[in-house]
Amino acid sequence: MEFQPTQLQQQSQTQTSVKIGLEEIVHAQMHLKDVITRTPLQYNRVLSERYGCTVLLKREDLQIVRSFKIRGAYHLMRSLPPERLASGVICASAGNHAQGVAYSCQTLGIPGKIYMPSTTPRQKVHQVKFFGGTFVEVILTGDTFDDAYAEAVAESERSGMAFVHPFDDPKIIAGNGTIGQELMEAAESVPDYVLVTVGGGGLAAGVSSYVKAVSPATKVIGVEPEGAPSLRQAFDAGHVVTLEQIEKFVDGAAVKRVGDMTYAICRELLDDVIAVPEGKVCTTLLDLYNENAIVAEPAGAVPIAALEQLREEISGKTVVCVISGGNNDVDRMQEIKERSLIYEGLKHYFMLSFPQRAGALREFLDDVLGPNDDITRFEYTKKHNKDNGPSLVGIELKHREDYEPLIGRMQKKGIQFVELNKDPVLFNLLI
Prior knowledge:
Layout: H1 10-13, H2 22-32, E1 41-43, H3 45-51, E2 54-59, H4 69-79, H5 82-86, E3 89-92, H6 96-108, E4 112-116, H7 122-132, E5 136-140, H8 145-159, E6 162-163, H9 170-186, E7 193-197, H10 202-214, E8 219-225, H11 230-237, H12 260-269, E9 272-276, H13 278-292, H14 298-305, H15 311-314, E10 318-323, H16 333-343, E11 347-355, H17 360-367, E12 374-380, E13 388-396, H18 403-413, E14 416-419, H19 424-430
Parallel strand pairs: 2-10, 3-4, 3-6, 4-5, 7-8, 7-10, 8-9
Antiparallel strand pairs: 1-2, 11-13, 11-14, 12-13
Helix pairs in contact: 2-4, 2-9, 4-6, 4-9, 6-7, 9-10, 10-12, 13-14, 13-16
């Protein structure tokens, strides 16, 4: 997701001193009590034993639209004057926000226009239509989110229909703050840490607004994907910045620019902002599924992925991780596994150059490949030079420690090679 400031955001940009009070969050909870699922705060034994602390998971993946986004969207819409609400709403989204708005439209019985990029997977479009029913019109436009966002803003200004921003709105933030209220009420003791995903900042701003108001000693830490550290860079710069490029894999948190309002609140209330590598997020996703039967989306796994970085600091403490959503596309699982293996040092790609003659591959298998190594990809090319040619080889290791011996055997054998894992340009081109 990528956001640029528009006329609709000018008001929020001039109100960056806004604070979300407890009364507003409690009011939001009253709006939401009959609409949302009061998601559980679950003790997780596996993670607790692994990190030597008490880990509690706030399961927003079990929300009615499988993400927290329903909270802010519904509260904002319920807060509109009746005559304005009756005219309908507009939003732009490629995922969870669209589903939250769609569900709210059907629940409230009002029309909604939801702009989505034409490249949005059909499964996501189907879910939006399912939650919105006959009340929602899905408009596919442009190739990117920015294209859809621009069209939605323009239509809102033309028609006067209310625009439901994904994060930079006090009602959205207050709705998200109900997560903080619920987890603090459900916890048997005051948490020492609360970890929350940061994308545009709406979730972190909302949760921290409640938690810090009732327990200033609780540390609230925002966690971003390493490839899209928009809040961390804003903190470092002292003002909101727009990142030139981002890694879009953690799509629910891949935002070039955090909100002005959310930045101001997070700047005041968050104790820290840290980043986790996308590969670590993938490993965490697989572990959550294999060890706990939890289906999280990449953005939902981000706080749990941060536990390793905080291992020493959180030892013996009580830590709450907010799993923000579980809308994960099964078609992405192969990519998730691949990224995890590469991050863990278990999958390596090489361009190898060895003689294209009978027996050369057999020699490679016998003399270079270790007993537990496995070739997962092999493309043997033979073009202009019939004696030698490059081969693309993917090798999966059983243990990270098997890497150095593999390299040593290739060097001893005299094989010329390029490690694609260490060359981002070639890796993206070939893999």
